[in-house]
Design goal:
This protein has 11 helices and 10 strands. The protein has 256 residues and is α/β, with parallel strands linked by helices. Bound molecules: 4-(N,N-dimethylamino)cinnamoyl-COA.
């Protein structure tokens, strides 16, 4: 499928690289981008040839510099509610996908851009990345789930400091605070994210999907992991994975 605001390429290992392609607007999220992101993620999740996704921004300057302020400026409360619903549902969809999604933050990840990155499984960032939730400086608060996603990821105290001040931090501080997993030179960023995605793709897809589910939904329910763990013993992948180990060969997972 062709998109107006996105570029999509999938390599032979089944790793899709999805690029938000509005570099002149620093890849700001308008209603069209949000709609296309939702459609693209739905298609990628249901495509058996795709094993994992890397999302990044076109150009050298920005991952996503936020929700589109020009579009938001004139919104009525009802339109704002609809816009926030669209954004929130798209981001929640990413969290509920069966496949890993890695954000490769190649520059500014502000407001809705940082929220998009936080909705992914984890974040790699370029040395030049700048991250923040500056919404209070525009007279609003994060509207796509940024307050609770950030608090869940780095704790309430640090999230409060970032959200109340709207300050923008660099990649080093973001890594120190646990927002970013790895910092890379800009030229190596997407490659490194694709390599990590490929490692997850070599593992059993059903097991990775169960692990994603367990971490997303089982942090406060220890039995949740136990239930997912035991269900995997009904799969061919579990038998193949363990048989391959005992036969000292690489497993051939079939995702069933
Ligand atoms: N929206 C629209 N256009 C943007 C944009 C944005 N967020 N960010 C940048 N642009 C556009 C600029 O207007 C400029 O366009 P032209 O003037 O060339 O036409 C172009 O991108 C290049 O930007 P600059 O010329 O400003 O580039 P600089 O290098 O000078 O500055 C910057 C880069 C990232 C520091 C600066 O552009 C900036 O401060 N941008 C805004 C960052 C920001 O505040 N982001 C957070 C947006 S608020 C809600 C739903 C959602 C949200 C909240 C509530 N509900 C409905 C309740 C989410 C809110 C946000 O994300």
């Amino acid at each position: 499928m062709a998109y107006n605001t996105l570029l999509l390429e999938t390599n032979e290992a089944g790793i899709a690289v999805l690029k938000i392609n509005r570099p002149k607007n620093l890849n700001a999220l308008n209603a069209e981008v949000l709609g296309e992101l939702r459609a693209a993620f739905e298609a990628l999740d249901s495509d058996p040839a795709v094993k994992a996704v890397v999302i990044t921004g076109e150009g050298e300057k920005a991952f996503v510099a936020g929700a589109d302020i020009t579009e938001m400026a004139e919104m009525s409360p009802l339109e704002a509610k609809e816009f926030a619903r669209k954004g929130r549902e798209t981001l929640l969809f990413i969290g509920g996908m069966k496949k890993p999604v890695i954000a490769a933050v190649n520059g500014y990840a502000l407001g809705g851009g940082l929220e998009l990155a936080l909705a992914c499984d984890f974040i790699y960032a370029s040395e030049t990345a700048k991250l923040g939730l500056p919404e209070v400086t525009l007279g609003v608060i994060p509207g796509f789930g940024g307050t609770w996603m950030l608090a869940k990821r780095i704790g309430a105290a640090r999230a409060r400091e970032l959200v109340y001040t709207g300050k923008v931090i660099d990649a080093q501080k973001a890594a120190l605070w646990g927002i970013v997993n790895e910092i890379l030179p800009a030229g190596d960023l997407v490659k490194a994210a694709v390599e990590t995605a490929a490692k997850t793709a070599k593992a059993g897809g059903l097991a990775v999907a169960a692990a994603k589910d367990a971490i997303a939904n089982g942090l406060e329910t220890p039995e949740y992991e136990t239930a997912l763990f035991s269900v995997l013993f009904a799969t061919g992948d579990q038998r193949e994975g363990m048989k391959a180990f005992t036969e000292k060969r690489k497993p051939a997972f079939k995702g069933e």
